[in-house]
Amino acid sequence: MMFFAVFPRVLLAPLLLRISADLGVSYDSTSSFFLTSSVGFSLGLVTSGFIACRLPVSGGGVYS
C-alpha cells in the first residue's frame, strides 16, 4: 500500500517544471495540486482504517 501512496508523487515530482510549463500554470498551483492529492489520499487511508477497525472481522468481507 505504501508503494501506491509514494510512487506517483516520486514519479511526478521531478516533472513539476515541465507540467507547469506545458499547462501554463504557476508552480504554486501545480504544487497545491500535489498537496491536495496527498492530503486526499491520506484522509482516505485514515478513513478506511477507521472503518475497518470498527467492523467485525467476519463482516469485512461482506463490505468489500
Structure characterization notes:
The structure is a single chain. The chain has 64 residues and is mostly helical. The protein is built from four helices and no strands. The protein has helices at residues 2-12, 16-23, 27-54, 60-63. α2 (16-23) packs across α3. The radius of gyration is 17 Å and the shape is elongated. The model has no long low-confidence stretch (mean pLDDT 77).
Instruction: Give the strand tally.
Output: 0
Order of helices and strands: HHHH
Mean pLDDT value: 77
- What level of helicity do the residues show? over 70%
- Output the number of helix runs: 4
Q: State the secondary-structure class.
A: mainly alpha
Which descriptors apply to this entry?
64 residues, mainly alpha
Short description:
The chain is mainly alpha-helical and about 60 residues long. Helices cover about 80% and strands about 0% of the residues.
